[in-house]
Amino acid sequence: MNRVTNQHLKISPSLAVPDSSPLSARTFPEPDHPYRSHFARDRARILHARAFRRLAGKTQVFSRQPGIQLSDHFRSRLTHTLEVAQIARSLAETLGLNSNLAEALALVHDIGHPPFGHAGEKALDAELQNYGLRFDHNLHALRIITHFEERHPAYRGLNLTLAVREGIIKHSRDYSSHLHPELSEYLLDERPPLEAQLIDLADEIAYLTADLDDGFDSHRITIDQARESVPLFRRFHDEVLHAYPNGTPRLIATEAIKRLLNALATDLMLELTRQIRDAQIQNLSDLRRFPSRLVKLSAVVESERATLKNFLYSNLYLAPDMEEIHTHASLVVQGLFRAFVQNPSLLPADHQAEIPTEGLARTAADYIAGMTDTFIEQTWQRVK
Ligand code: MG
Questions:
Q1: Residues with CB in 5 Å of ion ligand 1
Q2: 10 Å Cβ neighbour count for 13?
Q3: Is the pTM of this model over 0.90?
Q4: Of 69, 117, 194, 360, which has the most beta carbons under 10 Å away?
């Protein structure tokens, strides 16, 4: 790749979400702050939310379960979120987008995740399906920030801007406007602004590189395995080996991961500038009316990313020795959900109060989804 400078990567300022626009509207009107922008205030509200703090106790890849020795260095959902925010902010600043909005969206992107990572989410969704319902972490995140968080005497929720609520709904998926008329406020037939489009890939870049790193530290994958199966890793690993022939194997791998992260981020930005040019996107409304999202990797790097992801799936996320951990997670979520449905008086009073409007199954799922790994474990020990 030729030397890339900041100038290559700046996109037109007319493609950034401005600090004040219809997208900065809040459900409950508020006076402007004398010196802080709407999106800087949203970022702060998310960071101060209780659901945000609970991310510290939620699984990213490695679950804290009884009898499992776990390094405190492994990513939690909170540290993963902070890494996504770092990447998203850096991309937005380099491109000339609204970096406060991008950072707010990154900080909120995983706030709807239940305990025990994807195993917990799958189990909760399976239980709800018995009642004709589904668990969806984007919709749950929206409920957290509009309903469960209580930070103001006059209204429920964090009263975040429309841009942040729309970004939550459009994180890595599109809802059909026919199937979800209740979400019509979020302009389902339009593509989200670039600040929101960035988050999907900032998330991928953050976890693919972090999981290689934690995978090496946990000895669940080896550097040789990664070299063998992931050409993208091998390329940077060779480069670093050549530059530092006397470096320790672990630090050579660390530097290779850093270069890999940088390469993915740079490719994303170069590809975005190319997409904008090819599609002749001039302003925000062109972008929103365009038939597809513009933030993606180039075709070559995209296939290298997919190879890395497949490698992590077969050797880390779905490795045979992780199965026991996932089974335990499912049993706890299933057991607790059924206990609450059978005996609603086990739910705390404020959750019981939701039953008449939300129904028992949804209320039980909402309570479980908010729990940390340790809290669900303790609650299960008490209830079972
Ligand atoms: Mg994430």
A1: 110, 203
A2: 9
A3: yes
A4: 194
